[in-house]
């Protein structure tokens, strides 16, 4: 059996840079070895448990290095930016990194690989496939973990209010939020903290037929000031002013989750991976009988939270693809979901392993989102943080009841400036 190296404790960046590999500029991993960079995650632990079978099948040693997610991003930027491609395969966050990696040409084109017989690329949900495809139509990553927006609601409070089921559209959502609001319980919680709110606001933007860019093109002109976007801002601000909790402007996912867990709100829209937390007696006052799960009444995003990529400069792309193919196979997808990972393959959501872990209502919500969700929940640019800050300021203005049109114009101008700068920097036409 060949040697394996597992480095699974988060390490300082300097140490991580030393462990990534021993090649020089443009070198790559040594012959007979594959360097894989990951972050601590259930996905990673599942790979670790079964990696011997891959090594034996392919006669290769996998050097698996684990750093925290921010360190993975930093290391790859330093390594690849210097022309070193010692890391062959990496687990990364497409929402944070794919735009920069794509613009710099660091991602291997996987288009021919994913069409191999038996891999079944079509088994990945359509939004996940779109999110993994570059502007030029190349497949540049393979999603392993996904996330959608889900409505969590109090079944008992709905029954007391005479509401027969979850709201089906935005009009009902607003009506239900008002009907459920009382002196002790607020009707709904959504993110209100500026940059954080963008992720939740996205689905309301799409439900109003808006987008971040004209025609939904990643580097199309900014569209934050469009009539559709302004209408979405008005709705988002109004429902939170009238039926949301106090202090919503400081509310991220953590604060909103706590509000729902403690029984202070009747409805909460947040990422679907939060579902186990609401009936966990160690952190929540709610029971399984009280909590319901339903599709968001808005137009949910479906985003790849975790994906595998291969370095365009890897010296062994074929064995790197063999690793990605194994790690993202139907069998591995089902195994990961048996541990709670919300995966990207449709077949895994129909597997017995999934049914043993996820409530039937949750599975139905995931499948509905995977069918027609929007594959992004924020602007798709390198400086996404700055874009979210600008748009988040407009969201905060809407919640406060300020001049929404003026706030949207200001956010649009800032976003357009970011788009123009990146188009110039990366030669994007």
Automatic annotation (TrEMBL):
Q: Where is the signal peptide?
A: 1-20
Q: Which PANTHER family match?
A: ARABINOSE-BINDING PROTEIN-RELATED, DIACETYLCHITOBIOSE BINDING PROTEIN DASA
Instruction: List the protein's name.
Output: ABC transporter substrate-binding protein
UniProtKB keywords: Signal
Q: Domain of life, per the record?
A: Bacteria
Pfam families documented for this protein: SBP_bac_1
InterPro entries xref list: Bact_solute-bd_prot1, SBP
């Amino acid at each position: 059996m060949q040697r394996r190296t597992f480095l699974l404790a988060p390490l300082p960046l300097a140490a991580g840079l030393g462990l990534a590999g021993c090649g020089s500029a443009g070198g790559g991993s040594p012959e007979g070895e594959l360097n894989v960079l990951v972050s601590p995650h259930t996905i990673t632990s599942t790979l670790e448990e079964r990696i011997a079978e891959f090594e034996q099948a392919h006669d290769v040693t996998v050097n698996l290095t684990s750093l925290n997610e921010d360190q993975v991003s930093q290391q790859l930027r330093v390594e690849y930016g210097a022309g070193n491609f010692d890391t062959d395969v990496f687990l990364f966050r497409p929402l944070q990194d794919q735009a920069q990696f794509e613009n710099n040409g660091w991602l291997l084109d996987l288009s021919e690989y994913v069409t191999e017989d038996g891999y079944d690329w079509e088994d990945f949900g359509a939004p996940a496939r779109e999110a993994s495809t570059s502007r030029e139509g190349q497949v540049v990553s393979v999603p392993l973990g996904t996330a959608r927006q889900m409505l969590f609601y109090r079944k008992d409070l709905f029954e007391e209010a005479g509401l027969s089921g979850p709201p089906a559209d935005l009009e009902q959502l607003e009506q239900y939020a008002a009907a459920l609001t009382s002196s002790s319980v607020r009707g709904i919680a959504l993110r209100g903290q500026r940059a954080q709110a963008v992720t939740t606001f996205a689905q309301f933007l799409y439900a109003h037929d808006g987008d971040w860019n004209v025609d939904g093109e990643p580097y199309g002109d900014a569209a934050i000031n469009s009539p559709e976007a302004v209408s979405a801002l008005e709705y988002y601000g109004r429902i939170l002013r009238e039926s949301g909790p106090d202090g919503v402007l400081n509310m991220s996912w953590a604060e909103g989750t706590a509000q729902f867990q403690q029984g202070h709100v009747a409805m909460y829209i947040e990422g679907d991976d939060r579902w186990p937390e609401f009936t966990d007696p160690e952190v929540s006052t709610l029971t399984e009988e009280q909590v319901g799960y339903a599709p968001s009444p808005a137009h949910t995003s479906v985003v790849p939270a975790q994906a595998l990529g291969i370095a365009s400069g890897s010296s062994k792309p074929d064995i790197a693809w063999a690793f990605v193919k194994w790690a993202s196979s139907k069998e591995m997808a089902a195994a990961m979901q048996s541990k709670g990972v919300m995966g990207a393959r449709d077949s895994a959501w129909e597997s017995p392993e999934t049914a043993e872990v996820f409530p039937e209502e949750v599975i139905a919500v995931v499948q509905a989102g995977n069918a027609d969700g929007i594959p992004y929940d924020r602007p798709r640019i390198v400086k996404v943080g700055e874009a979210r800050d600008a748009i988040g300021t407009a969201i905060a203005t809407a919640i406060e009841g300020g001049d929404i049109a003026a706030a949207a114009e200001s956010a649009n101008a800032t976003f357009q400036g970011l788009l123009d700068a990146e188009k110039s920097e990366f030669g994007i036409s």
